[in-house]
Amino acid sequence: MKALEAVEKQEEIPPTEHPMDDVLRMDRIPHIWCPGCGIGLAVTAFVNALEKMQVDLDKVCVVSGIGCTGRVAGYIKTDSFHTTHGRALPFATGLKLGNPDLKIVVFSGDGDIVSIGGNHFIHAARRNIDILVICVNNFIYAMTGGQVAPTTPRSAYTTTSPFGNFETPSNIPQLAESAGAVYVARWTSLHMRRLTQSIIEGFQKPGFSMVEVISPCAMYYSRINKLGLGIDMMKFYHDNSVIKHGEPTENLDIGFQSQIIVGKFVDRERPTFSELYKGWKKEVKTVKRES
Amino acid sequence: MNGNQACAEGSLAAGCRFLGFYPIQPCFEIVQHFADRCVDVDGTFIQMEDEISALAAVLGASWAGKKAMTVTSGPGFSLMMEHVGLGVMLETPCVIIESQRFGPSEGYPTQAGSGDVMQSRWGSHGDYEIITLSPNCPQEMFDLTVRAFNLSERYRLPVVVLADKAVGSMVEAVIIPKAEDLRLKKRKRYSGPKGKYLPYEYDKDLVPWMVKAGQGYRFHVTGLTHDEKGYPVMNAKCQEWNVHRIINKVRLFSDDIIDYEEGYTEDAEVLVVCYGSVSRAAVRAVRQVRKEGIRAGFFRLKTLWPFPEQRILELARQVRTIIVPEMNYGQAFLEVDRCSRGKAETIFVHQDFPKVRSGVDIINAIRKADVKA
What we know:
Chain A is α/β, with parallel strands linked by helices. In chain A, 36% of the residues lie in helices and 17% in strands. Chain A has one domain: Thiamin diphosphate (ThDP)-binding fold, Pyr/PP domains (Rossmann fold, 3-Layer(aba) Sandwich). In chain A, strand 5 and strand 6 form a beta hairpin. Chain B is of the alpha/beta class and 373 residues long. Chain B folds into 3 domains: 179 residues, Thiamin diphosphate (ThDP)-binding fold, Pyr/PP domains (Rossmann fold), CATH 3.40.50; 63 residues, no CATH class; 115 residues, 3-Layer(aba) Sandwich (Rossmann fold), CATH 3.40.50. Chain B is built from 14 helices and 14 strands. In chain B, helix 1 crosses helix 2, helix 1 packs parallel to helix 6 and helix 11 packs across helix 12. At the A-B interface, strand 2, helix 3, helix 5 and helix 10 of A face helix 3, helix 4 and strand 8 of B.
């Protein structure tokens, strides 16, 4: 209200500290995301999670690929890497092996992680390398102009599916589970509290964790499919989601404007890459010494 | 010791503690030797899912503070091109060992070729400069691998060692110097106050200071055109500021990088410009025709890129004919032809591997050039 009054009186609003100043690169704000985009909310949830966990931010690295979500690395004030399209995971793998003390978060979009980086995703999960992946899924390639994505629901229009998409989309949680991820969850960008909680759990879980965030693309997906403003889409996703923890991941397909099942689907234990590697090295050293 | 083993030893001696790779031949012996030895020195190696991710992991490990390398051959090198560009743009020190075979595509995997000379220079998109070294014997596989690490640390660049199958499997005595006799270079480290670090601020050597991830500097780097903060800036001025410098940091210091070997050039009338395994036959050919009284000399490139333009031009002014034997259809030849600016006749001699050992084509080419005079 104070701000409104100030505007009416045409007074200058004194700059105030933002609660996320410590974690965001304020010298890069305003960001590039469109009004109504859900990526900002995913970043908010991530920042909230970091603050709640009170982690040492000096030891956190954020690695992104290319695309709208790929820009996240540039706004978070930790060591952050904006790499090539789809290759955030292998870059992060090298970073983690180079310095196992780092806590690494890969923040990228559905095109980056499931399409061009699909192979890296499968193998990072198989190795169970200690990385948290936050995958923002907006069902479309947004930065390049609204092309069909491997996650685009059937019958949805995009600039490269002008008569509706006929391909079957990927089910990201199922892919993650079958490849070997130890923690898999999905929320929409309006499930702020639950999303934050999942990010905390995934971050703290040793091994490969994946949190999918269903997020509106107000500029392309919504415009082409006539779904209203970003906020309308967010509400739609939120209101049409059903929380079903532990739901078998094969049931998690998403249809066009259909019900979305959200929740925590996988939370299991598997030895991580670092543990196995350490053990193997020790074994080899003993064998070498004895021989 | 063979060339591949010497290369693995060279990398370990240079302090390499990370190897990311994807299986391919004929370079695999390097990985095998590294894997055997790396447990002793607490190194890490990982077999990635493809060559794209192998080099990506190497770049990541380099930012974590490790000296890192990858090992590959033709088709794998093609896949790595994306990250050669990223390495150049992020200014990440790393070494790529490439054991050349015949191409294109899968080609002839078990035979030596040198068809990747131009690829190592121009393979990734956009404008950049890169350093490529060319060993011709197991000893040089060791020495040039060490030098590749030194150059990559000094210039913050991916450095390519362009070996080939023949040099890799050739067995010769290799002298490994004592650790204290190896002059190892370390990357320029920043250790100033935390709030003040600018990832791409540089001084007169045009190379920015580097930090490791996890030291608390909270830096950002991007493959996009960036300013000194490492933040993306999309305008022509920044593009010029960013890319012109990463080109100049090699071009302006190329005299320090370029290395070559010359023989009998003082009075030479016919010059053989050679590199890699072909140079062994070429040098022998020159020695042989000298006995016949032909005034031939050789110029062996140890660095292919940057190319020794100045020296080639000087020699072109002096000699009548320049012969370039290569195991391809003319790559370094184009560069020699360009650098000699028409001052000497340039002749390309194609070599295929079984024939190259005798050097007979080179001898004939020299004799022919001599008769014509």
